[in-house]
Amino acid sequence: MTNTSNSDNISFSSRESVGLLTPEADTSSRGFQPTVVQNYIEGQWVSSLGTEYVDVINPATAKAIAKCPLGTQQDVNTAVKAAQKAFQTWRQVPAIDRVQILFRLKALMEENAEELARLCTLEHGKTLVESRGDVRRAIQMVEMACGMPSIMMGQGSEDIAAGIDCYAIKRPMGVFAAITPFNFPAMVPFWFWPFAVASGNTFVLKPSERVPLTQVRIFELIEKAGMPAGVINMVHGSKEVVNALCTHPDIQGVSFVGSTPVAKHVYQTATATGKRVQALGGAKNFMVVLPDAPQDSSVKTVLESVIGCAGERCLAGSVIVGVDDAYPWLEAGIVSAAKAVNIGDGLEPQVNMGPLISQQAKERVLELIQSAIDEGAKILVDGREGVEHLDGFFLKPTVLAGVTPNMRIAKEEVFGPVVCLAQTKTLDEAIAWLNSSEYGNTTSLFTASGAAARKFMYEADPSMIGVNIGVPAPMAFFSFGGCKNSFFGDVKAHGKVSVDFYTDTKVTVQRWFKNSSIW
Ligand code: NAD
Predict the structure, then answer these.
(1) Which of 234, 275, 300, 407 is deepest in the core (most CB within 10 A)?
(2) Average pLDDT rounded to a whole number, residues 360-366
(3) Interacting residues of 432 by C-beta distance below 8 A, sequence separation 6+
(4) Would you tell me how many other CB atoms lie within 10 Å of the CB of residue 494?
(5) Ligand 1 centroid vs 447 CA: distance in angstroms?
(6) Rounded to an integer, what distance in angstroms lies between the CA atom of residue 510 and that of residue 166?
(7) Which pLDDT value is given to residue 35?
């Protein structure tokens, strides 16, 4: 469990393990100090005004590796002031020049990708392969935002009436902010700021207080890429910082990613002060397997979806529905594959699943597993066993069978490596069940039938659909986000549409009268 502490006596695992930031980078860096994470405001690394700290814990060892300050309203005010000041000049920099900094950042992130991935694993626990994916996705967002000169182009028509022309241009609006979750320490902040900044806005990021280190190292690279002071700022913290961002009069819009209750809170608080908001919340994802689906690849893909990143993904499969004759082979395949998963420290190459983020997260998942058993589900693979000797927050893949719509585990987000197996007679029954969920992030169908896939795409509610794909994550050039209690707002994250979130469309209608006799 992350614990709040004012003590300086936190035991660090070792200087080297904290400094997976390389020793060279560490000595030259002002950003990362081994004990306390710093804010980045107006191009300077500065101490937070907060007096409380959260331990940043390596979930594979349960040891504290740094301290993250819980920032204050005053920290936010200073960052927003810097961003507001920088906006006056940044908005006048041509887009083609703004993106040169992003091209340099892309090169720096490529050069440092392995170091970033190791840092991500160290503070989050996911495997190195998964962390490399996390960093790759972040880089792809930068690549997409490098196209901003053409992405943000407007529209125009001549002669909308006789002799009258009309032009619509997309203009930056000012300061934007993002509040991000623990589960993708590298990627999620990049869903937002590259698009905001490339389109001429300035930015304040509040990363998760549980995983601030990857972003600290990335901000060092942003600085090295030549980003002007104040264009992008970072304030660490929790509730107080979030509420200050949501209510600050000089912030134009807020992007949020995290659990549904906080997403709702951010949406309500920030829209109440007139801001644009896109708030991405939690999920409950169903995967439906038809009898005609290819058996081996479907089993492998379904299990990977549920246990990848230890189940801590908003696109993770949770309830796995075998339709009719698909069920027996699906159950047998999942049980045998789940037993073969090798858990451990994500830095070890042979490990294919890391720990959960915290003891508290683990206890939540254990409680949900128990509730399912109490409500009549059968435990086929008990991931609670065989982890007692490990220091970290480990849970092995767990397989439950006989899960039914009324069980808590069928309704609540688990965010852990738990396969909830269920059976329906028909595809219609499976679609009706998944559509009854309060969430609408993603769902997948496994089949060899185009007609079944078309029906599924047409009738299933969630906004992101997979067909024979377990984690249908849209790439940087598409947009990302769900519906129902998985998303609050209208414009989704990244992709071309995100420019609409970060710009105001200004329309000019013009007519000119001839006042010369020489032309
Ligand atoms: P979280 O809601 O606990 O925290 C997210 C952010 O909100 C953090 O920066 C945190 O500091 C802040 N926060 C937490 N409690 C707060 C409060 N009471 N008031 C104000 N701010 C608060 O989420 P998490 O545990 O970091 O992330 C896991 C959740 O994120 C899961 O529900 C997952 O589904 C969701 N998620 C969704 C998506 C998506 O695309 N929909 C993507 C990733 C994660």
Answers:
(1) 234
(2) 98
(3) none
(4) 27
(5) 33
(6) 6
(7) 78
For ligand 1, atom 6, which residue shows the shortest CA distance?
181
Residues 238 and 309 occupy one common structural domain: no
* Mean pLDDT confidence for 189-211: 98
Beta bridge partners of 364: none
SS3 416: coil
Res. 2: pLDDT tops 70: no
* Catalytic (active site) residue 314: yes
Do 306 and 247 lie in one domain? The reply is no
Same domain, 256 and 119: yes
| 199 and 140, same domain (yes or no) | yes
Q: Which of 120, 246, 314, 420 is catalytic?
A: 314
pLDDT-derived band at 25, boundaries 50, 70, 90 = very low
Task: Burial-class residue 388 by CB neighbours within 10 Å (0-12, 13-18, 19+).
Answer: exposed
**Residues 269 and 290 occupy one common structural domain:** no
For the CA of 357, the closest atom of ligand 1 is 25
Q: Which domain holds residue 493?
A: 72-281+486-505
Alpha-helix runs per DSSP H in 324-379: 326-339, 359-374
**178 or 17, greater pLDDT:** 178
Q: With respect to residue 350, please indicate whether it lies within any of the assigned structural domains.
A: yes
- Averaged over 82-106, what is the pLDDT? 98
With respect to residue 87, please indicate whether it lies within any of the assigned structural domains: yes
Does 458 lie in the same domain as 320? yes
**Tokens, residue 373:** 């058993």
Q: Is the distance from CB of 405 to CB of 433 less than 8 angstroms? A: yes
- Give yes or no: residues 261 and 353 share one domain: no
Pocket test of ligand 1: the residue of 75, 314, 487 to mutate, having most ligand atoms within 8 Å of its CB, is 314
**Structural domain total, the chain:** 2
**Residue % of the chain over a pLDDT of 70:** 93
